[in-house]
Input
Amino acid sequence: LKPSSASSWALGAQAMALAGAIRPPRAAPLAAAALQIFALANAKDPCACLNWKEVYKSDMAMCGESLEYYVAGWSLGFKRREVVNAFAFAGNEAQMCGDFYKKLDSDRCVNVGPFARGTSEWWGGSWCYVSNECNDLYGGRRLSETTSDWKDWLVSFVNDARLSKISEVSWKLCRPGKDPRLRDMEVEELLTLCERQGLSMRSCVKAAYSGSWMHFYWPQIHWMWERRYEPDIFGQLPEILRDAMQKEEAMVVDTAGGGWYSDLVVSRGYDAFYLQYNPKDCPATQYCRSMIEPPQQTPAASDPPQESSAPANPAHAEL
Output
């Protein structure tokens, strides 16, 4: 039976009272740490991005309350009691929190999702957490705007008191040139960051760079890439890849649909890294990386062959 609003209120109040009587105030140390981080952020700029690892460690937000699972559910955030069961609705995307977000010791903005290069809608951009003092969220929102009901209080009493907490941070959309972004890092620099912090390299590169997003896969264009110095062949490469190459901007290309347990390619200009899914040999990042050897440059198809001044057969030259 669905309880009435009065009984819902009573049940919530009773759960809160019992929780206060039984559970120790575990949130106090986390709250103190959060206040310290807020003070440091606000001292320079209330809209400055917060450190990802510290946000989760200090319980300023739970991973999934904002855009961490946007690709999985097209949602602007889930309640705390929902994110603890993320595997039920997020599938493979639920791995992002443990493999990437909670380990990322950086304040750089990350992609809303691994969408195609050139996506002009807001989800083609990047985001970060900021203090609630920030009023310039650029389309973001405060987590406190998510209301709690009797279910949240009940679940928090039965499982964990933190599940009913109202997170006092906001998330904002980032702007190029104004906010530091993973997207602005050189590929070698980003991969080194992944390795140093033990981040999933798959999650790391897709949180940084735009990609092919199901428009094409590496096996379809591999032969063209090997002959990319030939003008006629270069023109056959997908337009978004050609644009990235000409602008010297990094781009991720999947080798298969999904890209969770398959190899990846990260191109920048005419160079590329091959990321082989190999958790056995590269357990920290789950991927082993190597440079794709550049091909020998060949003359363009329109160039006429050079005539040799030497005779074709020296033996006939004397005749």
Remarks:
- The chain has two domains: 44-182, 201-292.
- Strands lie at 110-111, 126-131, 141-142, 169-173, 250-254, 264-268, 271-277, 287-291.
- Confidence is low (pLDDT under 50) at residues 1-29, 31-35, 298-319.
